[in-house]
Amino acid sequence: MKLALGLEVYNKATLDIPMDAIETAEHSGYHSVWTAEAYGSDALTTLAYLAGKTTRIKLGTAVVQVAARTPASTAMSAMTIDALAGGNRTIIGLGVSGPQIVEGWYGQPWGSPHHWLRDYVSIMRKIFARDEPVTHAGKQLSLPFNGDGSIHEGKALKSIIHPVGNIQIWIASGAPLNTALAAEVADGWLPMGYGLEGWKIHGANLESGFKKRQETAVPRENFQLFTNLSVEITDDIKGAIDRRKPQTAMYVGGMGSEKNNYHRDSMARRGFPEAAQKIQDCWLSGDKEGAVQAVPDEYIDQSGLIGPSQRIRERFSSLVPNGATGLMIRTTDTTTIELMAEMTESEYGLE
Fold first, then answer.
1. In the chain, what are the domains?
2. What digits encode the pLDDT tens for the residues 224-267?
3. What is the sign of the dihedral through the CA atoms of 120, 222, 316 and 174?
4. In the chain, N or C: fewer CB atoms in 10 Å?
5. What is the Cα Rg of the chain in Å?
6. CB 190 within 8 A of CB 94
7. pTM for this one?
């Protein structure tokens, strides 16, 4: 089992990188540290900084939003970061975000999320391979560009910089089509709200993708599935659960439109459809407190290890879902980071 540290730095007004936590994770044998982006700090710049501050731990994005930059731009950043890090340390997790951010923040058409990801991965693979100048005729993206506004002078090019190591590409998704796509073309999957019943919900979609597995991706036996696991050492279990509800309500209720909200859909798939709908209804009507109150305690408790150390130890193995190859822990507490490494090593062996 692999452990990963997920950073919550992208959703704050000021950038504060928890180096003590990152150094503790690296020292404790964690596989990777992950950044993210919404509409504040970006995911890639922090990784470049961490490339010079760490020596072994892998550097991942969970996620880079595909509408934010072209696949060539993301590939250039990935190769630069991996060169700074010494090679074989960079993982690019890709996600489509939602239409409010795609069209409202980046000014890009929502289009087809599935083809955004399929085309994006294909172009990045060609850039990393450097076999020939890159051309791609996709349903969402094409190189060279020859659409509206083109003067038809685009030239197929090959990256000047050579990758110094293998750069993996993972896909974040929750819906069936893109989950199958992850198993078909990516090196790993970052599920949205996997939960304890994740394999029952998503296994068939993954298997359909594995049947089409592309040779450019890692062998199936090396495919990674990392799921989030909240951990907090505390004697106040109820208080810890309540502190998580506002963010859950914001994502389920407000991080998406009424029609397109992946976080709402993820909660519904995990067995809480009525709560998910109520949270969104409250949020969109302006009743944010009502949305927070509608978040079930059980939903939060199922998603994490909360309580005294003894309760965390007792519940640990029961909260590791079938199919997961890695657990992404979101904390800055060094004691928690070390406890997770100790328990994982004892229970599964730490990779």
1. 2-230+308-347 (3.20.20.30), 235-307 (no CATH)
2. 999 999 999 999 999 999 999 998 999 899 887 888 887 898 89
3. positive
4. C
5. 20
6. no
7. 0.91
